[in-house]
Model the fold of this input.
Amino acid sequence: MISAVLYQGRDGLDACRITGHSGQAESGRDIVCAAVSILGCTCVNAMETVCGIIPEITENDEGVLAFQLPEMNPADNAKAQILMGALKQGLSDLADAYPQYVRLSVKNTTQN
Done:
């Protein structure tokens, strides 16, 4: 099972952690795992190349991709939120289509 967690801060989605493997097919043929990987990697890469925002990235060979957005001005945050919204939509679509392989949650990190 792939677990994708998006973190909602005061100014929008500001972090993501994707862990696990779907187990939908063997390695190299797993379309669900490939789709989640492409969504996560594209979001992180576009932050830098399209928006000029450098997230702090953690990834490893054990199926973890995590990133945190840096502190930024409102204009840059608006750009970042578009990409984070697209990531959320893509992960939500996959979780709906493959609920036995992908779980998406959004955690609120603001203190009331």
Notes: The chain has one domain: 2-106. The beta strands are 2-9, 12-19, 56-60, 64-68, 102-108.
